[in-house]
Design goal:
single chain; about 325 residues; alpha/beta; eight-stranded mixed β-sheet; 12 helices
Length: about 325
Amino acid sequence: MGLFSFFSKEKKETLDKGLTKTKESVFSKLSRAVVGKSKVDDEVLDNLEEVLVTSDVGVETTLRIIERIEERVARDKYVNTSELNKILKEEIAALLSENNAGVSADFDAQLPSKLYVIMVVGVNGVGKTTTIGKLAYQFKKAGKKVYLGAADTFRAAAVEQLLIWGERVGVPVIKQKMGADPASVAYDTVSSAKANDADVVIIDTAGRLHNKINLMNELTKIRNVMQKVLPDAPNEVLLVLDGSTGQNAFEQAKQFTKATAVNALAITKLDGTAKGGVVIGISDQFKIPVKYIGLGEGMEDLQVFDKNEFVESLFS
Protein backbone atom coordinates (compact mmCIF):
# COMPACT_ATOMS: atom_id res chain seq x y z
CA MET A 1 0.00 0.00 0.00
CA GLY A 2 1.46 3.39 -1.00
CA LEU A 3 2.56 6.10 1.37
CA PHE A 4 -0.48 8.26 0.65
CA SER A 5 -3.13 5.53 0.35
CA PHE A 6 -4.74 6.34 3.69
CA PHE A 7 -5.43 9.92 2.63
CA SER A 8 -9.00 9.99 1.32
CA LYS A 9 -9.67 11.02 -2.26
CA GLU A 10 -11.96 13.83 -1.09
CA LYS A 11 -9.32 15.27 1.25
CA LYS A 12 -6.68 15.03 -1.43
CA GLU A 13 -8.88 16.90 -3.91
CA THR A 14 -9.47 19.66 -1.32
CA LEU A 15 -5.72 19.88 -0.67
CA ASP A 16 -4.81 19.96 -4.37
CA LYS A 17 -7.43 22.62 -5.07
CA GLY A 18 -6.43 24.68 -2.02
CA LEU A 19 -2.76 24.71 -3.04
CA THR A 20 -3.43 25.50 -6.72
CA LYS A 21 -2.11 29.08 -6.63
CA THR A 22 1.05 28.09 -4.80
CA LYS A 23 1.64 25.10 -7.11
CA GLU A 24 1.21 27.20 -10.24
CA SER A 25 3.60 29.82 -8.91
CA VAL A 26 6.24 27.28 -7.79
CA PHE A 27 6.09 25.32 -11.03
CA SER A 28 6.40 28.36 -13.28
CA LYS A 29 9.44 29.50 -11.24
CA LEU A 30 10.96 25.99 -11.26
CA SER A 31 10.53 25.75 -15.03
CA ARG A 32 12.46 29.00 -15.45
CA ALA A 33 15.13 27.81 -13.00
CA VAL A 34 16.05 24.78 -15.11
CA VAL A 35 15.41 26.06 -18.62
CA GLY A 36 18.18 24.95 -20.98
CA LYS A 37 19.82 22.80 -18.31
CA SER A 38 20.13 19.02 -18.32
CA LYS A 39 21.82 18.56 -14.96
CA VAL A 40 21.60 20.16 -11.53
CA ASP A 41 24.64 22.47 -11.31
CA ASP A 42 25.56 25.57 -9.26
CA GLU A 43 23.47 27.84 -11.48
CA VAL A 44 20.39 25.64 -11.12
CA LEU A 45 20.90 25.54 -7.34
CA ASP A 46 21.20 29.36 -7.22
CA ASN A 47 17.99 29.62 -9.23
CA LEU A 48 16.29 27.05 -6.99
CA GLU A 49 17.31 29.08 -3.94
CA GLU A 50 15.56 32.10 -5.43
CA VAL A 51 12.45 30.02 -6.22
CA LEU A 52 12.13 28.85 -2.62
CA VAL A 53 12.82 32.26 -1.04
CA THR A 54 10.28 33.98 -3.30
CA SER A 55 7.76 31.23 -2.46
CA ASP A 56 7.94 32.31 1.21
CA VAL A 57 9.78 29.24 2.43
CA GLY A 58 12.11 31.62 4.29
CA VAL A 59 15.85 32.19 3.92
CA GLU A 60 17.09 29.88 6.70
CA THR A 61 14.90 26.94 5.65
CA THR A 62 15.76 27.52 1.97
CA LEU A 63 19.49 27.31 2.76
CA ARG A 64 18.93 24.04 4.64
CA ILE A 65 17.02 22.57 1.68
CA ILE A 66 19.71 23.71 -0.81
CA GLU A 67 22.43 22.22 1.40
CA ARG A 68 20.63 18.87 1.44
CA ILE A 69 20.26 18.90 -2.35
CA GLU A 70 23.94 19.86 -2.78
CA GLU A 71 24.94 16.87 -0.65
CA ARG A 72 22.75 14.64 -2.78
CA VAL A 73 24.17 15.99 -6.04
CA ALA A 74 27.72 15.46 -4.71
CA ARG A 75 26.87 11.92 -3.62
CA ASP A 76 25.08 10.91 -6.83
CA LYS A 77 27.64 12.69 -9.09
CA TYR A 78 25.07 13.40 -11.80
CA VAL A 79 21.51 14.54 -11.10
CA ASN A 80 19.23 15.24 -14.05
CA THR A 81 17.06 18.38 -13.86
CA SER A 82 14.03 16.20 -14.61
CA GLU A 83 14.60 14.58 -11.20
CA LEU A 84 14.60 17.90 -9.35
CA ASN A 85 10.92 17.74 -8.42
CA LYS A 86 11.26 14.26 -6.95
CA ILE A 87 14.37 15.25 -5.00
CA LEU A 88 12.69 18.42 -3.69
CA LYS A 89 9.72 16.37 -2.45
CA GLU A 90 11.94 13.84 -0.71
CA GLU A 91 14.26 16.36 0.93
CA ILE A 92 11.50 18.71 2.14
CA ALA A 93 9.45 15.79 3.52
CA ALA A 94 12.59 14.52 5.30
CA LEU A 95 13.27 17.99 6.71
CA LEU A 96 9.72 18.27 8.04
CA SER A 97 9.93 14.78 9.56
CA GLU A 98 13.15 15.67 11.38
CA ASN A 99 11.43 18.67 12.93
CA ASN A 100 8.39 16.63 13.98
CA ALA A 101 6.35 19.09 11.93
CA GLY A 102 2.89 17.70 11.43
CA VAL A 103 0.59 15.17 13.02
CA SER A 104 -1.32 12.55 11.12
CA ALA A 105 -4.01 11.57 13.63
CA ASP A 106 -7.43 12.69 12.39
CA PHE A 107 -10.32 14.28 14.29
CA ASP A 108 -11.87 10.93 15.14
CA ALA A 109 -8.66 9.67 16.80
CA GLN A 110 -8.73 9.15 20.56
CA LEU A 111 -7.69 12.31 22.40
CA PRO A 112 -4.77 12.18 24.88
CA SER A 113 -7.06 13.10 27.79
CA LYS A 114 -10.78 12.85 28.53
CA LEU A 115 -11.32 16.62 28.64
CA TYR A 116 -8.91 18.01 26.06
CA VAL A 117 -8.48 21.78 26.39
CA ILE A 118 -7.32 23.86 23.42
CA MET A 119 -6.45 27.53 24.00
CA VAL A 120 -6.44 29.36 20.67
CA VAL A 121 -4.20 32.41 20.18
CA GLY A 122 -3.40 34.69 17.25
CA VAL A 123 -3.82 38.26 16.04
CA ASN A 124 -7.21 39.56 14.91
CA GLY A 125 -7.99 38.89 11.27
CA VAL A 126 -6.06 35.63 10.81
CA GLY A 127 -9.22 33.49 10.87
CA LYS A 128 -8.96 32.52 14.55
CA THR A 129 -12.67 32.41 15.40
CA THR A 130 -13.51 30.74 12.08
CA THR A 131 -10.85 28.11 12.76
CA ILE A 132 -12.40 27.48 16.20
CA GLY A 133 -15.82 27.02 14.57
CA LYS A 134 -14.42 24.58 12.02
CA LEU A 135 -12.54 22.65 14.71
CA ALA A 136 -15.76 22.39 16.73
CA TYR A 137 -17.57 21.10 13.64
CA GLN A 138 -14.90 18.49 12.86
CA PHE A 139 -14.69 17.25 16.46
CA LYS A 140 -18.49 17.08 16.79
CA LYS A 141 -18.76 15.26 13.47
CA ALA A 142 -16.25 12.74 14.88
CA GLY A 143 -18.65 12.10 17.79
CA LYS A 144 -17.01 14.28 20.43
CA LYS A 145 -18.84 16.58 22.85
CA VAL A 146 -17.48 20.11 22.43
CA TYR A 147 -17.69 23.33 24.47
CA LEU A 148 -16.53 26.76 23.27
CA GLY A 149 -15.37 29.63 25.50
CA ALA A 150 -15.69 33.26 24.30
CA ALA A 151 -12.69 34.66 26.23
CA ASP A 152 -11.98 37.41 23.68
CA THR A 153 -14.16 39.74 25.73
CA PHE A 154 -12.71 42.95 24.27
CA ARG A 155 -14.38 42.65 20.87
CA ALA A 156 -18.14 42.31 20.60
CA ALA A 157 -17.69 41.01 17.06
CA ALA A 158 -15.53 38.11 18.28
CA VAL A 159 -18.13 36.98 20.82
CA GLU A 160 -20.96 37.36 18.30
CA GLN A 161 -19.04 35.42 15.66
CA LEU A 162 -18.33 32.58 18.11
CA LEU A 163 -22.02 32.47 19.11
CA ILE A 164 -22.99 32.19 15.43
CA TRP A 165 -20.52 29.33 14.95
CA GLY A 166 -21.79 27.61 18.11
CA GLU A 167 -25.35 27.78 16.81
CA ARG A 168 -24.34 26.63 13.33
CA VAL A 169 -22.37 23.65 14.63
CA GLY A 170 -24.73 22.90 17.53
CA VAL A 171 -22.29 23.25 20.42
CA PRO A 172 -22.63 25.37 23.61
CA VAL A 173 -20.72 28.66 23.89
CA ILE A 174 -19.91 29.99 27.37
CA LYS A 175 -19.74 33.79 27.50
CA GLN A 176 -19.93 36.72 29.90
CA LYS A 177 -20.58 40.43 29.43
CA MET A 178 -18.29 42.56 27.27
CA GLY A 179 -15.06 43.53 29.01
CA ALA A 180 -15.32 40.66 31.50
CA ASP A 181 -12.15 38.99 32.76
CA PRO A 182 -11.09 36.50 30.02
CA ALA A 183 -9.70 34.13 32.67
CA SER A 184 -13.12 34.05 34.34
CA VAL A 185 -14.74 33.02 31.04
CA ALA A 186 -12.13 30.28 30.56
CA TYR A 187 -12.74 29.03 34.13
CA ASP A 188 -16.51 28.91 33.58
CA THR A 189 -16.09 27.10 30.27
CA VAL A 190 -13.78 24.38 31.59
CA SER A 191 -15.95 23.96 34.72
CA SER A 192 -19.15 23.58 32.63
CA ALA A 193 -17.47 21.19 30.19
CA LYS A 194 -16.14 19.04 33.03
CA ALA A 195 -19.51 18.97 34.80
CA ASN A 196 -21.23 17.93 31.57
CA ASP A 197 -18.74 15.19 30.67
CA ALA A 198 -17.46 16.95 27.51
CA ASP A 199 -14.52 15.72 25.42
CA VAL A 200 -13.10 18.95 24.00
CA VAL A 201 -12.96 22.58 25.16
CA ILE A 202 -11.82 25.31 22.76
CA ILE A 203 -11.07 28.72 24.27
CA ASP A 204 -10.92 31.85 22.10
CA THR A 205 -8.54 34.60 23.32
CA ALA A 206 -7.91 38.24 22.44
CA GLY A 207 -5.66 38.86 19.44
CA ARG A 208 -3.79 41.94 20.57
CA LEU A 209 -0.05 42.20 19.96
CA HIS A 210 0.51 45.91 20.62
CA ASN A 211 1.71 45.21 24.17
CA LYS A 212 3.46 41.87 24.47
CA ILE A 213 3.78 42.04 28.27
CA ASN A 214 0.00 42.50 28.72
CA LEU A 215 -0.66 39.67 26.27
CA MET A 216 1.76 37.39 28.09
CA ASN A 217 0.22 38.23 31.47
CA GLU A 218 -3.31 37.67 30.19
CA LEU A 219 -2.54 34.29 28.60
CA THR A 220 -0.63 33.18 31.71
CA LYS A 221 -3.59 34.15 33.90
CA ILE A 222 -6.03 32.22 31.66
CA ARG A 223 -3.78 29.17 31.87
CA ASN A 224 -3.41 29.40 35.67
CA VAL A 225 -7.14 29.81 36.26
CA MET A 226 -8.04 26.82 34.03
CA GLN A 227 -5.55 24.69 35.96
CA LYS A 228 -7.65 25.18 39.10
CA VAL A 229 -10.26 23.01 37.36
CA LEU A 230 -7.93 20.78 35.33
CA PRO A 231 -4.26 20.66 36.40
CA ASP A 232 -3.04 19.85 32.85
CA ALA A 233 -5.02 22.57 31.05
CA PRO A 234 -4.52 23.72 28.41
CA ASN A 235 -3.34 20.55 26.67
CA GLU A 236 -2.82 22.48 23.48
CA VAL A 237 -1.96 26.13 22.81
CA LEU A 238 -2.87 26.54 19.16
CA LEU A 239 -1.45 29.55 17.31
CA VAL A 240 -3.48 30.51 14.22
CA LEU A 241 -1.50 32.19 11.41
CA ASP A 242 -2.73 33.62 8.11
CA GLY A 243 -0.72 31.88 5.38
CA SER A 244 -1.52 34.63 2.86
CA THR A 245 0.57 37.13 4.84
CA GLY A 246 3.79 35.24 4.04
CA GLN A 247 6.74 36.59 6.01
CA ASN A 248 4.43 38.52 8.36
CA ALA A 249 3.22 35.14 9.64
CA PHE A 250 6.82 34.38 10.70
CA GLU A 251 6.89 37.60 12.75
CA GLN A 252 3.56 36.78 14.43
CA ALA A 253 4.85 33.29 15.26
CA LYS A 254 7.95 34.87 16.85
CA GLN A 255 5.87 37.21 19.01
CA PHE A 256 3.36 34.61 20.21
CA THR A 257 5.95 31.91 20.92
CA LYS A 258 7.65 34.46 23.19
CA ALA A 259 4.34 35.34 24.89
CA THR A 260 3.14 31.80 25.65
CA ALA A 261 4.07 28.13 25.31
CA VAL A 262 2.65 27.45 21.82
CA ASN A 263 2.74 23.73 21.00
CA ALA A 264 0.62 23.55 17.83
CA LEU A 265 0.02 25.69 14.73
CA ALA A 266 -2.91 26.19 12.36
CA ILE A 267 -2.13 27.96 9.07
CA THR A 268 -5.21 29.38 7.35
CA LYS A 269 -6.20 30.94 4.01
CA LEU A 270 -3.79 28.85 1.93
CA ASP A 271 -6.34 28.60 -0.89
CA GLY A 272 -6.27 32.34 -1.62
CA THR A 273 -2.52 32.75 -1.92
CA ALA A 274 0.63 31.63 -3.73
CA LYS A 275 2.49 31.74 -0.40
CA GLY A 276 1.90 28.12 0.66
CA GLY A 277 5.66 27.66 1.07
CA VAL A 278 5.28 29.49 4.37
CA VAL A 279 4.02 26.21 5.90
CA ILE A 280 7.43 24.60 5.23
CA GLY A 281 9.40 27.52 6.63
CA ILE A 282 7.32 27.99 9.77
CA SER A 283 7.34 24.23 10.47
CA ASP A 284 11.12 24.19 10.19
CA GLN A 285 12.01 27.44 11.96
CA PHE A 286 9.83 27.12 15.04
CA LYS A 287 10.05 23.37 15.60
CA ILE A 288 6.34 23.44 16.47
CA PRO A 289 4.04 20.98 14.69
CA VAL A 290 1.67 22.39 12.10
CA LYS A 291 -1.48 20.59 13.16
CA TYR A 292 -4.14 22.09 10.88
CA ILE A 293 -4.29 23.89 7.54
CA GLY A 294 -7.18 25.96 6.18
CA LEU A 295 -7.93 25.47 2.49
CA GLY A 296 -11.22 27.28 1.94
CA GLU A 297 -14.37 28.76 3.43
CA GLY A 298 -16.32 25.52 3.93
CA MET A 299 -16.53 23.74 7.29
CA GLU A 300 -14.81 20.71 5.74
CA ASP A 301 -11.93 22.82 4.44
CA LEU A 302 -9.94 22.71 7.68
CA GLN A 303 -7.71 19.64 7.49
CA VAL A 304 -5.35 17.88 9.84
CA PHE A 305 -1.94 18.61 8.33
CA ASP A 306 -0.20 15.61 6.78
CA LYS A 307 3.35 16.67 5.87
CA ASN A 308 3.86 13.89 3.31
CA GLU A 309 0.61 14.59 1.51
CA PHE A 310 1.24 18.35 1.62
CA VAL A 311 4.65 18.02 -0.05
CA GLU A 312 3.32 15.48 -2.55
CA SER A 313 0.50 17.83 -3.51
CA LEU A 314 2.73 20.92 -3.68
CA PHE A 315 5.36 19.42 -5.98
CA SER A 316 3.27 17.07 -8.14
